[in-house]
UniProtKB/TrEMBL annotation:
Species annotation: Actinomadura barringtoniae
Highest taxon above the source species: Bacteria
Pfam families given in the database record: PP-binding (PF00550)
Stretches of the chain forming a coiled coil according to its record: none
Protein name stated in the entry: Carrier domain-containing protein
Domain Carrier: 7-87
Length: 89
């Protein structure tokens, strides 16, 4: 696993969420508390799983299955937190 800082994780998550929602905006424009299903983002459950796989590849991390147990993902921050936890950040 490579060292990954918080900003790298946040930017990667936001970029993938924007792409999955078929938007054209800069990741910095996306609020951390933006709902994953709302007026701006619209992420399907299948898209959600695919994004975590792409994040593993892009950030060279493994997101173990038990990391997701009991978690609810409703905002951008929720996704960033789980990836940051896996990277030790």
């Amino acid at each position: 696993m490579t060292a990954t800082n918080d900003q790298t994780v946040t930017t990667a998550v936001k970029r993938l969420l924007i792409a999955e929602s078929r938007l054209t905006m800069d990741p910095a424009e996306l609020r951390d508390d933006e709902p994953l299903k709302g007026d701006v983002l619209n992420v399907s459950s299948l898209g959600f799983v695919g994004m975590f796989v792409r994040l593993e590849d892009e950030l060279d991390v493994e997101l173990p299955d038990d990391l997701f147990n009991g978690r609810t993902f409703t905002t951008v921050d929720d996704m960033v937190a789980v990836v940051a936890e896996a990277t030790g950040r």
